[in-house]
Automatic annotation (TrEMBL):
This is Amino acid ABC transporter ATP-binding protein. One of its GO terms (molecular function) is ATP binding. PROSITE patterns: ABC_TRANSPORTER_1 (PS00211), ABC_TRANSPORTER_2 (PS50893). Signal peptide: none annotated. It comes from Haloarchaeobius amylolyticus. SMART domains: AAA.
Length: 267
């Protein structure tokens, strides 16, 4: 898998949100985007996940521009991407059903209809429903293999976010796009998700992650990208970005020295 953003810009009405952003990502790589609130991190992730079309520049997935394809062809590429948002959003169904839904909607209609009919059949003699092996593997990855039959309402916020991550992972995407997935989690849940992200990399998934946690970016990233006011200031390995950045704006941001007045960087 190869993702490339080439001189990508994006704006709404008269407002430019991203300007000439160029960034690439390979399979088995974690690229983390850091920057202040309002820098355009979420917009960049939505563009990478094909939720939005750039107003200028090009996005290439395996050297193909999805926006130059038909809707069905673009959807086929979109289904190779899994996205996890900052807030967990679960359906009113047991945890296993929540995790499996991404895989189910990707199946051809005959398989989807057969799966629906199977769920209407009587349960097995042990009175427990069959759970897909891939679903259990994804839940095990986030430490929730014993929670497959729980109601989402019984989950803590951290557990719900781990289920959201498992749902994205169960669909076996080539690319995982994560928008501050640990921002509201306690240290234990954060550590579990970070281990899951690293294991996803080991399984050759590409991971594009936005975070406000500088220590997290330093811990798990292969490369870190600093975004400021819609501009990609610099990209590099974590040790360089956090210890010897090339741009003074990056140095001031990682030190916590940036000051803002009307969203403008002060000298």
């Amino acid at each position: 898998m190869n993702l490339e953003l080439a001189d990508v810009s994006y704006g709404v009405d008269e407002t430019e949100i991203l300007t000439d952003v160029s960034l690439s990502l390979e399979s088995g790589e974690i690229v983390t985007i850091i920057g202040p609130s309002g820098a355009g991190k979420t917009t960049l992730l939505r563009l990478a996940a094909l939720f939005e079309q750039p107003t200028d520049g090009a996005i290439r997935f395996d050297r193909t521009d999805p926006w130059g394809l038909s809707r069905d062809e673009r959807l086929a590429i979109r289904r190779r991407i899994g996205m996890v948002f900052q807030q967990a959003c679960l359906f009113d169904a047991p945890v296993a059903r929540n995790v499996d839904i991404g895989r189910r909607v990707r199946r051809p209609w005959p398989q989807r209809i057969r799966g629906f009919l199977e769920r209407l059949l009587p349960r097995r003699l042990d009175d427990s429903p069959a759970v897909d092996e891939r679903t259990l593997e994804a839940l095990e990855l986030v430490g929730l293999s014993d929670a497959w039959d729980r109601d989402p309402a019984s989950l803590s916020g951290g557990e719900a976010q781990r289920v959201s991550f498992a749902r994205a992972l169960a669909a076996e995407p080539d690319l995982l796009v994560l928008d501050e997935p640990t921002s509201d989690l306690d240290p234990r849940n954060t550590a579990i998700l970070e281990r899951a992200i690293e294991r996803a990399r080991e399984h050759d998934h590409g991971v594009l992650l936005a975070t406000h946690d500088m220590h997290q970016a330093e811990r798990i990233s292969d490369r870190v990208a600093f975004l400021l006011e819609g501009e990609l200031v610099e990209v590099g390995p974590p040790d360089r970005i956090f210890e010897t950045p090339r741009d003074e704006r990056t140095a001031r941001f990682v030190r916590g020295d940036l000051l803002y007045d009307d969203n403008e960087l002060l000298a």
